Amino acid sequence: MLEEITEDTLPPLLQTQFLGRRLYAFGQCESTLLCARQLLKGASPAALHGALIVADYQTGGRGRNGHTWTSAKGLSLLFTLILDATHDAFASPMSVTFTAAVAVVEALRRQGIPHCNIKWPNDVLSPDGRKLCGILTESPSPHVLISGIGINVNQCAEDFPEELRNTVCSARMLAGQPLSRLALLADVLKELESNLELPHQAIIAKWQRLCNTLGRNVRVRVAGHDTFGQAVGLDEDGSLILRRMDGSLENVRSGEVEELRPCSIPPVFSS
Known about the structure:
By secondary structure, this protein is an alpha+beta fold. Helix content is 22%, strand content 26%. The protein has a 7-stranded mixed sheet, sandwiched between helices. The N and C termini lie far apart (65 Å).
């Protein structure tokens, strides 16, 4: 039986002051991110601060770099939060993405699913490295952030396309039993609101402890260009710091990360 997320079922579980207190719930929509943009056309960011847009199914869900996000109806958490960042000097799409990733890992732990980790810049992974959650944060106008979060909750392996079954998983597959989407959503909102109150450096420190990218030899692909090196840290703006083969450091602000064996990194020749 489908567990519905509605104005009646979610509020009794909320432990937040502002996140999710204004709720827009849809059985189906094109994209909760798109719904958030449309809502902002008719109201001020301050009035919509903390608003939650959630759907059981999206016909046009998307991730970073034009990737699509697909899910069978009622098996995932698909939602977007609107944040008014007028008075937050550190607020940016990257910082909110990092904060949301930390919150998802902590919420999963509260649900009895420990040891999940984060892949730079915006994925939450299972302990064995399969994708569990994706996050996309955008700024449709100055001082306004909308953060779209998709979590695989109650899928079984056969619910995923065959070509993805080795690279994705769900909370149910990790827990060994179905989970309440309502309870998990309430926990994510609780952890996110708590983490949004922390200093920027505290979030960076949490994120780095949970990140599985740091310390690994990686290839970062941006617009067809590959950058190779060891991921050694995170800059204050969220950039991934790579140590190249020649010892130089390079900051990478976006891209697709792939872990490599040490011998897979091409040598860097100085002129």
